[in-house]
């Protein structure tokens, strides 16, 4: 499978971010805790040079907790502020305001020396599609001020959100980068739903997920779907189809539907807490 998805609105969104970067004190970059490195857009690093940086491992409840801690340490060693959060359920959100102030302490100190007092921190919220930016902003603001959706591409334009007198947020659309140098990165982004499912081959994608799970989390699929253990990934999809009564034309197994069920269950955390990449691999 070849992975690439870079619709026209992403070029426009990147340009908009470039135009606004001069107004920004801090970039809050959301990554998916299951794939913290693969879900980082290298363009954001380039845009954010000389800006304070905060990395949020969002959807931390879907990844292994010990791995989350390893990734937080990994990013802190690189010089970033890093926090694990679960925007949907509010986990870790209360600490964010103080983390933002801490990340911008040098800027606030510089302002103070120039006689500029009480100017709010302006933070750009950035990340790839479907990583949970709008859900994070809503959780932080305590109200539904940014559109949310469980598919990539919901936020189309920019919007400023004033949290309080100390912090203003700029919400930006999710952007990928024009070309994945490593197709393994594309595969992981497809697993978590950051690439439009309509352009993917569902069965092939699910078969790759089966291979990963059998190798790294043996027994998870057998327990979840009450199926026998098989080496063959497509055999496993057939077993899931049989277990979940996915049939076409009366009795033929619908492995396409079984593949969709598996991907949906993984993305929703119904297979348990799973991390797809680890710091020691990087």
Provide an overview of this structure:
A 6-stranded mixed beta sheet has the order 3-2-1-4-6-5, with helices on both faces. Strands 7-8 form a two-stranded antiparallel ribbon. The protein is α/β, with parallel strands linked by helices and 282 residues long. It has helices at residues 8-20, 42-47, 65-77, 96-103, 105-113, 133-141, 183-192, 202-216, 220-225, 233-243, 255-267; strands at residues 26-32, 52-58, 81-84, 121-126, 159-162, 167-171, 247-248, 252-253. Helix 2 (42-47) links the parallel strand 1 and strand 2. The protein is 40% helix and 13% strand. The protein is elongated, with a radius of gyration of 20 Å.
By oligomeric state, this entry counts as: single chain
| Element-level helix/strand string | HEHEHEHHEHEEHHHHEEH
Overall geometry comes to elongated
Number of strands: 8
Structural class given helices, strands, pairing?
alpha/beta
Low-confidence stretches: 152-156
Our Rg estimate from Cα atoms comes to 20 Å
Strand order of the largest sheet: 3-2-1-4-6-5
């Amino acid at each position: 499978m070849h992975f690439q998805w870079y619709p026209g609105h992403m070029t426009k969104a990147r340009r908009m971010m470039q135009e606004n970067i001069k107004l920004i004190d801090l970039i809050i970059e959301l990554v998916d805790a299951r794939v913290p490195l693969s879900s980082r857009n290298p363009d954001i690093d380039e845009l954010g040079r000389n800006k304070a940086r905060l990395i949020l491992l969002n959807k931390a409840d879907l990844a292994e907790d010990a791995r989350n801690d390893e990734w937080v340490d990994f990013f802190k060693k690189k010089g970033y502020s890093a926090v694990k959060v679960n925007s949907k359920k509010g986990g870790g959100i209360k600490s964010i305001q103080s983390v933002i102030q801490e990340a911008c302490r040098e800027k606030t100190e510089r302002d103070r020396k120039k006689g500029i007092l009480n100017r709010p921190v302006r933070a750009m919220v950035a990340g790839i599609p479907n990583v949970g930016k709008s859900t994070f902003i809503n959780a932080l603001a305590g109200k539904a001020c940014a559109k949310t959706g469980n598919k990539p591409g919901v936020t189309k334009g920019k919007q400023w959100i004033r949290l309080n007198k100390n912090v203003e947020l700029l919400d930006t659309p999710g952007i990928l980068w024009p070309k994945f140098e490593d197709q393994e990165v594309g595969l992981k982004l497809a697993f978590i739903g950051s690439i439009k499912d309509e352009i993917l081959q569902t069965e092939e994608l699910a078969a790759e997920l089966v291979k990963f799970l059998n190798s790294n989390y043996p027994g998870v699929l057998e327990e979840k779907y009450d199926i026998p253990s098989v080496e063959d990934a497509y055999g496993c999809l057939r077993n899931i189809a049989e277990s979940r009564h996915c049939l076409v034309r009366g009795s033929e197994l619908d492995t396409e539907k079984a593949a969709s069920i598996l991907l949906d269950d993984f993305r929703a955390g119904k297979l348990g807490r799973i991390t797809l990449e680890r710091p020691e691999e990087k």
